[in-house]
Design goal:
The radius of gyration is 18 Å and the shape is globular. By secondary structure, it is of the alpha/beta class. The protein is built from seven helices and eleven strands. The longest helix has 28 residues. Helix content is 39%, strand content 18%. Helix 3 packs parallel to helix 4 and helix 4 runs parallel beside helix 5. It comes from Arthrobacter yangruifuii. Belongs to the short-chain dehydrogenases/reductases (SDR) family. GO terms for molecular function: oxidoreductase activity. Pfam families: adh_short (PF00106).
């Protein structure tokens, strides 16, 4: 009988975009606490360093996910530091302009698409290129969608359109990744307590379908982070393809 102690398992590496605040910050800290090596990406270096908290397992890499060269540099640095990328959490996003479709400027529309869709595409493409080289182990991509990928808020045409597009990307990436051991899933979060949620309604409450405003229930961003960690921790033989997590009692099912 072999009584030798097994070699310790190599820590897995996760790249998290939008890691400087909100769900991204909470998720990065949850992954670090779980033993992951974490690459923290975002536009604001100071906030990223606050998230990292000086952890030896955190790599801070300021990057704009809408800029192809930034994304390529991000993943090259992640591979250079840790040797592989096991998980990508596409979290960076913006709510974009508030208004009906006839009130949106093309500039605001394009900015929202650039962050929420093109940024997700660029990061996923870079991750897949590296994950294919890791095949058959591959890797896992988790996209941050929104309950707006199911049912919109009033006056959120740009945001809603981008989140429906993210759902399409999630399904396509998961399908195309099958031969290489790459899986892709999506978490749709409703009313995690973040700066983005606080900005909806400007403190007056969120606009409802009947034209009234209401302060909606919220839940801690750390609970959303725990759900993302759950998705990331599934064995390679399993994939959480879709997970909807909302504040209890929020007006999601009753929209429209």
């Amino acid at each position: 009988m072999d009584n030798r102690t097994p070699a310790p398992e190599t820590p897995r590496t996760a790249v998290i975009t939008g890691a400087g605040s909100g769900i991204g910050r909470a998720t990065a800290r949850a992954f670090l606490a779980a033993g992951f090596r974490v690459v923290l990406a975002g536009r604001r270096e100071t906030e990223l360093r606050e998230t990292a908290g000086g952890s030896a397992d955190a790599l801070v890499l300021p990057a704009d996910v809408t800029v192809p060269d930034d994304v390529e540099r991000l993943f090259a640095a992640a591979i250079g530091a840790f040797g592989r990328v096991d998980v990508l959490f596409n979290n960076a996003g913006t709510f974009g302009p508030v208004g009906s479709i006839d009130e949106l400027s093309i500039e605001d529309w394009n900015r929202t698409l650039a962050v929420n869709v093109t940024g997700t595409m660029l990061c996923s493409a870079a991750a897949v290129r590296h994950m294919k080289a890791q095949s058959p182990q591959g890797g896992r991509i988790i996209n941050n969608g929104s309950v707006s990928a199911h049912t919109p808020r009033p006056l959120s045409a740009a945001y809603t359109a981008t989140k429906h597009a993210v759902t399409g990307l999630t399904k396509a990436i998961d399908l195309d990744g099958r031969p290489f051991g790459i899986s892709c899933g999506q978490i749709d979060i409703g009313n995690a307590a973040t700066e983005l949620l606080a900005g909806i309604g400007g403190g007056q409450g969120a606009l409802q379908a009947d034209g009234t405003r209401a302060v909606e229930p919220a839940f801690p961003a750390e609970e959303a982070a725990a759900a993302v960690l759950f998705m990331a921790s599934a064995p390679a033989s399993a994939n959480v393809r879709s997970l909807v997590l909302t504040a209890a009692g929020m007006p999601f099912g009753g929209r429209g």
